[in-house]
Design a protein that fits this description.
The chain has about 425 residues and is mainly alpha-helical. It folds into 2 domains: about 160 residues, Rossmann fold (3-Layer(aba) Sandwich); about 200 residues, Phosphate transport system protein phou homolog 2, domain 2 (Methane Monooxygenase Hydroxylase, Chain G, domain 1), CATH 1.20.58.220. It is about 65% helix and about 5% strand. Strands 2-1-6 form a 3-stranded antiparallel β-sheet, with no helix packed on it. A 3-stranded parallel β-sheet has the order 3-4-5, sandwiched between helices.
Length: about 425
Amino acid sequence: MWKSTLLRCINRLNDLIEGARHEGNILLDDVDIFNPLIDITDLRKRVGMVFQKSNPFPKSIHENVAYGPRLQGLKNRTVLEEIVEQSLRGAGLWEEVKDRLNKSALGLSGGQQQRLCIARALAVKPDVLLMDEPCSALDPIATGVIEELLFSLKKELTVVIVTHNMQQAARCRIRRRSCTWANWSSSVVQSSCSRIHRRSKRKTISPDDSGDLMVQQRHFDEELAELKTKLARMACLAEDQIDKALTALVTRDAALACEVIERDHKVNAMDVEIDESCIELLALHQPAAHDLRLVTTAMKLSTELERISDLAESICERAIELNEEPQLKPYIDIPRMGSLARVMVKESIDAFVKEDARLARKVIVDDDFVDDLMEQLFRELLSFMMENPHTISRAIRLSFIAKSLERVADHATNIAELVVYLVEGKIIRHTSPAAQP
């Protein structure tokens, strides 16, 4: 509870509480904010605050942001519009609300309302922004958005945040090398920012005393690296399954086909292992922002790889059946499809490992080539079946194999879309390439 009290001291909100008192000094630009000559209204303009629970005014989104500048006497409509847009952009909310600025702010989600409160604070151009556990009432996704926003805001102003979430504190410590820490038995000491510090007679706490948090973060980072390693191993095995399945088909090697079928259980086991690792990471570390996207992407990516291995198994089953009859035609288009699909899988995994959104988008575009080959091959097999009914069983099995390869390419595309989400935080599933930013 004292954390919030400390923040309220910095912009003197505690002055509104009857019987409140303080000891020591708080300096803002080397001026004691408790000096009787300080203009409290100006102080609260320079030191804005965002509370634990979002508190938008029962007004439109536009009026919420414009309220502060209007209160300061600004009446120029053009300037107000610029301030509203600039503040909403600064809070990462403009793209989400630009078409409904006149709608009630109470209709926004919890995370959006909190960002609106940040935009409202930014509208008066503060030097310092106080954040009182701004993510405690938000879900992990909204928490991630707010954290990314804070890391961008620190380039423009001083951000003072208190939190009870140790993982969040550790993330802030990693993203900014100099931080100030406090615990229940001691008080806050001078921070890395020269604008604000507090003098205290109590024992000081060095940033090095946050070692336990650093150890937690280091272990978390190691577990994330291990997760990516597991995914890379699983991807290599899935790629090898496709490669050997195509080899078994073209060379009519039933023994190799059986080997691929037998190895599928290894991919299944790795899928389960990765899922368990992800669930453990979510439960123990409560990741947010990029780390949360990484863990959720890994869970989905392992499922895509498991399905690719299942498709390789299906190709081998059809290959064994085809070996019982004479070869219908030279295999030309199917190996081409297989080669393209295998490259797509490899590139999608490379994009994940390197976090390369550009490579991921290339994979998404390449899916069209596999689809075209699929249609071409289907028309060719259909002509075989129409000319000679005795070829129907073989042609149908080959069409099943072609469909499996087309599905492999689809799964590679799904992985690429997950990579774009991981890197950019944008969900581009179920959208046409033209509609994607």
